[in-house]
Type I restrictionenzyme (Specificity subunit) (Helicobacter muridarum), 57 residues
Amino acid sequence: MINSGITLYGFYDDFNNEGDDFTIAARGEYAGFANFMSERFWAGGLCYPYRSSDKIC
């Protein structure tokens, strides 16, 4: 589980993101901190997960 810090917040037996995502901390001391998650993970309410697209408009 990733939330708004620079390390994992804890562990959870479910996921809401497939991995290969960037996360950006939303609030707190580490607001704006960017990280890359290569495996499936649970994103808490204090981080924004983003996935890049290989589609070109």
